[in-house]
Amino acid sequence: MGRPGPGGGGRGSPLWALPEELLLLLCSYLDARALGRLGQTCRRLRLFAARDTLWRRPAQACLHAGYSAAGADLAPGIPVKERVKVSWNWRHGRCQRATLLKWKRNLMPWMQLDGNCLYLSQAEDIWAYRLRPDGAGLQRRPQAIFSGHQEDVCRFVLANGHVVSGGGDGNIALHEVHGALSIRFSAHEQEVNCVDSRGGIVASGSRDRTAKVWSLSPGGARQCLHTVQTEDRVWSVAINIPEGLGAVTPAPLCFPSGQLATSLGTDFHRGAGVLDVLYETPSTLLSCGYDTYIRYWDVRANTRQCVREWEDDGNHMIASGSSYYGVVRLWDKRHSRCLQSFSLSAPTSSPVYCLRFNITHLYAALASALHVLDFTSP
User: Fold this and answer.
1) Which of 78, 80, 232, 235 has the fewest CB atoms within 10 Å, i.e. is most exposed?
2) What is the model's pLDDT at position 128?
3) How far is residue 230's CA from residue 248's CA, in Å, rounded to a whole number?
């Protein structure tokens, strides 16, 4: 490389006589460690070696570095080199912990994360908090509070600029995020355990053993399009566009026609229950439940047996929460063992009711507090 010139910029090195395109090509073969060492050589190389172009290939091989499976950049506002560093912290469990909120009585909170805003259910209301620029804290006052239930909110989702929630009063409520429109209607005879919304429809599931599909069109709002009778309470629903609707009771799949299409798996023990499902693509989904397993399904291959399963529940990462002692675990889908484990409520026992994470932070809602794990500066 040669020694730096008098200005410390390495201008006397023959390296800089090469065209920039050739330098980029040569450095593109370096791994993350070699690029880091190259950047320590001189100030000019530090700037050169920090370019996103050089770090993109190492980042795509990292865990949760902000790239989709197809290679799309999911976090263009964060330098790729910084994402590689944060990915290393995720993998090795290097983080700072903090408690963002506490409340006096035990609740069953649910969360949604939307850019720089975190939505959190607290009893009958949903509170919207603006995240601080560093992501490790919340603005002191909520920017909005959405009310519409007479009993606790069970689940809610964000869809097309609306907050759609289901409550213990059997009602579904819709609120405009940036407007005054608010709709509430009776949906089920018992509590609404779960809701999902997409493509102008709302799906709901209840303790009354039914899953229902509702219209959100201007002239047909509150109209029930289909009712699916099940054998047990419905704990989770997920709409898969364009394929249709997935409802879990423990694990059937149905479509907007209202007809049951198939069931996922046949070996669940009675009472095991699938508590939540998440579609990754129109044909693949993840499920988790009381039996401590996360399962990965591909409905194109086999609906009777999952493709892969992980016991005890960006790039290949899964976060899961336990039903006791507030334990959060991080997983790499390419491996069967968990990467890291964090206990957030010991010695007091609490379920982890909801987890949300972005490139740099993980948020966990327990019975009496909201916790954050900050992986940017351990």
Assistant:
1) 232
2) 97
3) 10
